[in-house]
Structures are given as structure tokens and as C-alpha cells.
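TL;DR need C-alpha cells for one chain.
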Amino acid sequence: MLKVKVEKIIKAKKDKVFFTMTDFENLPSKLPQIFKSVKIISREGNSIITEEFVKIARRDITQKVKHVIQPTEKHEVFILEGDAKGSHIVESYEETSEGTKIIVEGDFKLVGTLNLLGFFAKKEIEKSINEVMDKFAKILT
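>> reply
TL;DR here they are.
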């Protein structure tokens, strides 16, 4: 497992940041360069399963993902199928005087094309997470 932690402050209210980042159906229209398509397969309580075609670490990835949402506080991601199958990512949201602090902590299991990153995997994943958060910051501020 590859452990990654990234933090970023976005100058917007916590509710707005959280609900924008967890509005899965609209991610392809908001960030088409990252989210090529997102299809909701099932929704039960605070759990949503999606089928996603995304660009991560400069690679196109198709994956099945379970999202567990605790509104405005936490978003957990479990990769069920795809090149990062078995990975677990936790996004935590904290209100600050500057806006919203997002903490992304991930335990990544890499197979397939992502495994080809080898030694550079951690840096590429951190870079990808930062790019995603920077793009969200632009649409939120």
C-alpha cells in the first residue's frame, strides 16, 4: 500500500465545497479534463456506488467506486474495481477563517497501468490530487 496525504485550503464555505465535490453526476461537466464520465449505479442511504472513467496520474482509468458520505464532514472512497482496486481514500473537510481545509489521506493499491508508475507513483498521485483540488478551487471561488 502506498500512503498519501495532501492538504489544501479552498476559499469557499465548507457546505459549498463539500456538496460540489460530492455532486458526482455533475463532475464531468464541471471538470471534464479529469472526470470523463460518472454513472450512478446505486444509492442507498449515505452510500453511492459509481462507475467512473477518469484521468488520474496522466492515465485514463475505468473504475467502480463506493462513496460513503457524512455530509459536510467526510467523504470516504473505496475503489472496488479498476487499476487502484482495494484503495481507500478519506477526504475530511474543516472550516477555517480562510475558507475550507480539505485533507485527503489515501492508502493506494496500484495494479495495471498505475503500477507502471513504480518509484514515481507517490509523487504522481499527490500531484494528481493537488491538480484536482486546484481545479475545484477555481470553480468554487
